[in-house]
Amino acid sequence: MGKTLLEKVWEIHKVGSISGGRDQIFIGLHLIHEVTSPQAFAMLREMGLKVLFPERTFATCDHIIPTDDISRPFADPLAEEMMQAIEKNIKEFGITFFSPESGKQGIVHIVGPELGLTQPGMTIACGDSHTATHGAFGSIAFGIGTSQVRDVLATQTLALTPLKVRKIDIKNKLKPGVYAKDIILYLINRLGVKGGIGYAYEFAGEAIESLSLEGRMTVCNMAIEGGARVGYINPDQTTYDYIKGREYAPKGKEWDKRLQYWESIKSDPDANYDDVANFDAHDIEPMVTWGITPEQCIPVTEKIPEPKNDIDKEALEYMKFKPGQKIEGTKIDVAFIGSCTNGRIEDLREVAKYIKGNKVAKGVKAFIAPGSMGVKKQAEAEGLHEIFMEAGFEWRNPGCSMCLAMNPDKLVGDQISASSSNRNFKGRQGSPNGRTLLMSPVMVAAAAIAGEVIDARKLLNIK
Ligand code: SF4
């Protein structure tokens, strides 16, 4: 009987078995940011411990950094304090920091892949829920809490409970105007926000294989929103082509050696899965959330459903929607393109392709926060920023921005945003009664232009 990628990578990185049915797993790459690391470093200091392998930890700042004025000190004293804390910690513990001055700063899940740090067959940990993003390369990537950040810093290992594997097989290719974001929203709708608890999701099938590496990252990014601890995709030529030549990618003979390893950790054709779920990409339409969890979503062409449970009733009340109401035509106040889900260069290229010659509707605040300084530089080299600004979008600096609004980018009152981020929880975008509609970046751009939710295929003539 063959093995899954998860089983192989787990076995290779297993240091030993510990209490409670858990395994101690070696972590190859540790990524940190300014919000979940200060307490972890404080705990190390209290215990008189060092970082065991400082060369395996890399830091950036993303959550609190403003996307307009990044001159120091930051206007928000708390943000400035967090920035100073990470600057002090990386110096004291000898860790590489992708600071704004380095020209490499950005959202942790965008920076790791774009610098070539994220590679197949690795175990990766980061004190952030959306770490599964890195699974797009065929790595096993865990989002962890602050005390586990401390554990990884001190021991380079984590105590983890083995996971079951559900293969999610999606046949056929996506239709025009349907994107990776629509795949993952559709899957969460079908399998539920709790459907993945106890599982790793292995995404497979023609719909996944035909995605770029960037699209694959969008799918894996939201595995956690479906309850799965980990999401991954077997590596292939698309993966290797993406990694080759990047700053931390292996070079020369080391490349050949690693390639052999990467090929060896793919799931075997006769691997045994704990569950298999089959879908057809032809059934997927551009999706829009109408509620307060990513599961509460519908194709843009459909009407808001009758409530099936208390959380649906709560969502309708919070969102001020009525069952039977069309989601298309919902007026928006804000359009946000960015985040670790959809703030990559491919997302920006796709938006620029379709918005050329259009203008943002009056009264809509539309802005784009590129995922990293690398993405920003590339977009500007291609002149994309000019297309965005000409259309009426604000062109910002990199950071998490309005994905979670721990920075000045926030909704006000009960404003509605069309957002390319990953969470539509109550208050997520900075206002306790702000309302978030998740969708693909092209759908956000279409909403910005129309001033309301609209089928981008219709408005932008996508065929
Ligand atoms: S963009 Fe959003 S989801 Fe991603 S790391 Fe930042 S806050 Fe978390």
TrEMBL record:
GO terms for molecular function: 3-isopropylmalate dehydratase activity; 4 iron, 4 sulfur cluster binding; metal ion binding. It catalyses: (2R,3S)-3-isopropylmalate = (2S)-2-isopropylmalate. CDD domains: IPMI (cd01583). It comes from the Bacteria. Its cofactor is [4Fe-4S] cluster. Its EC number is 4.2.1.33. Signal peptide: none annotated. Residues 7-451 form the Aconitase/3-isopropylmalate dehydratase large subunit alpha/beta/alpha domain. [4Fe-4S] cluster binds at C340, C400, C403. Binds 1 [4Fe-4S] cluster per subunit. Keywords: 4Fe-4S, Amino-acid biosynthesis, Branched-chain amino acid biosynthesis, Iron, Iron-sulfur, Leucine biosynthesis, Lyase, Metal-binding. GO terms for biological process: L-leucine biosynthetic process. It is an enzyme of class 4 (lyase). Pathway: Amino-acid biosynthesis; L-leucine biosynthesis; L-leucine from 3-methyl-2-oxobutanoate: step 2/4. Belongs to the aconitase/IPM isomerase family. LeuC type 1 subfamily. Heterodimer of LeuC and LeuD. Catalyzes the isomerization between 2-isopropylmalate and 3-isopropylmalate, via the formation of 2-isopropylmaleate. This is 3-isopropylmalate dehydratase large subunit. The lineage of its organism: Bacteria, Pseudomonadati, Deferribacterota, Deferribacteres, Deferribacterales.
